[in-house]
């Protein structure tokens, strides 16, 4: 039986119980103190437990009302902003899924496609037979985002319900995009956006949408040409302007394919992919020529400060979420 942290007891010889309420951290700027206590005027644990539980429920209700007072109603612009972020994350997800699949191994490739088909069919079936339960699960993820943006999670709000509906759509669409990539049916970013626009009619990225992934450059039709470096003189010093080079996210998949052509061990390939993903996560995706020695030092220092089990914890969180959809 877990101990109630809000039920406290004084020391002997006058043993009495009292209720202790801690102010939530997100409201510490609203209240002038971190906690307060209320004497229950009783030495009976059974009676004090009942009273303190009731007081706890009342205080939590009050805190929620205070939070609601600070939060704003969600608008269409809020919906667009949240969906834009989610679409960007989805595109990045399907690209990483493709890169982590050994497309040179026909058996593994087909297994991954079958896995996508199975997952998509189960998700469609779940939505068809229990749309309320499915959307309630997905709304928990949305509600966390709204809370961070000081927006109300009001189920009766028209825009909120539209956001949850489109969020559900994206779960199914994501699987279709993954399957297309594995089958070699690659699209440009704007084609993904056009597909969403035809379905949602939101003009999510405006009339002339920009690429989904920041610093993402489409595959070139001709070999990259490195222009001669120009020299600029400023304050008696020589500075060379950077030469145009491909972005890191475009080049590392080619290196992975080369490793597999050279029959490198699959474990080595997977470790290399994780290393490249860490580089993008810690340093950002930039043209290869823009990385410097300072970036190398920062990368090393970041790894030293990063917990060794970071990936394992992240993988567990992803697995818990995806298991619901499988």
Q: Taking Cα atoms only, what radius of gyration do you get, to the nearest Å?
A: 27 Å
**Beginning-to-end CA distance, first to last residue:** 34 Å
Count helical runs: 10
Largest sheet: 3 strands, antiparallel
User: How are the strands of the largest sheet arranged?
Assistant: 1-2-3
How would you describe this structure to a colleague?
The structure is a single chain. The protein has 326 residues and is mainly alpha-helical. The chain has helices spanning 45-70, 76-99, 106-129, 131-148, 158-182, 189-200, 248-261, 266-283, 293-305, 310-325, and strands at 7-9, 17-22, 35-42, 231-234, 237-240. A hairpin with a 2-residue loop joins strand 4 (231-234) and strand 5 (237-240). It is extended, with a radius of gyration of 27 Å.
Please give a quick description of this structure.
The chain has 326 residues and is mainly alpha-helical.
Can you lay out the helices and strands and say which pair or pack?
Blueprint lengths: L6 E3 L7 E6 L12 E8 L2 H26 L5 H24 L6 H24 L1 H18 L9 H25 L6 H12 L30 E4 L2 E4 L7 H14 L4 H18 L9 H13 L4 H16 L1
Antiparallel strand pairs: 1-2, 2-3, 4-5
Helix pairs in contact: 2-5, 3-4, 3-5, 4-5, 7-8
């Amino acid at each position: 039986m877990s101990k109630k942290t809000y039920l406290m007891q004084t020391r002997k010889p006058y043993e009495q119980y009292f209720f202790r309420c801690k102010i939530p951290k997100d409201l510490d700027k609203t209240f002038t103190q971190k906690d307060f206590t209320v004497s229950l005027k009783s030495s009976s644990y059974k009676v004090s437990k009942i009273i303190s539980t009731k007081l706890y429920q009342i205080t939590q209700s009050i805190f929620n009302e205070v939070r609601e007072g600070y939060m704003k109603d969600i608008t269409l612009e809020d919906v667009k902003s949240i969906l834009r972020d989610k679409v960007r994350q989805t595109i990045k997800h399907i690209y990483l899924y493709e890169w982590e699949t050994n497309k040179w191994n026909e058996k593994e490739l087909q297994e991954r496609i079958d896995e996508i088909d199975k997952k998509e069919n189960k998700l469609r079936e779940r939505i068809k037979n229990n749309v309320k339960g499915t959307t309630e699960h997905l709304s928990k993820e949305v509600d966390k985002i709204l809370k961070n943006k000081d927006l109300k999670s009001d189920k009766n709000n028209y825009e909120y319900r539209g956001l949850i509906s489109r969020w559900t759509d994206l779960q199914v669409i994501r699987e279709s995009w993954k399957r297309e990539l594995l089958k070699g049916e690659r699209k440009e970013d704007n084609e993904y956006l056009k597909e969403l626009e035809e379905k949602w009619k939101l003009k999510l990225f405006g009339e002339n949408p920009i690429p989904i992934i920041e610093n993402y450059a489409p595959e070139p039709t001709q070999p990259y040409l490195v222009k001669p470096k120009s020299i600029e003189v400023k304050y008696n010093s020589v500075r060379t302007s950077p030469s145009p080079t491909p972005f890191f996210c475009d080049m590392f998949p080619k290196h992975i394919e080369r490793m597999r052509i050279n029959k490198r061990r699959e474990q080595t390939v997977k470790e290399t992919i994780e290393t490249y993903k860490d580089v993008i996560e810690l340093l950002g995706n930039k043209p290869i020529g823009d990385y410097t020695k300072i970036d190398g030092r920062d990368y090393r220092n970041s790894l030293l400060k990063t917990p060794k089990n970071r990936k394992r914890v992240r993988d567990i969180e992803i697995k818990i979420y995806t298991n619901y959809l499988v």
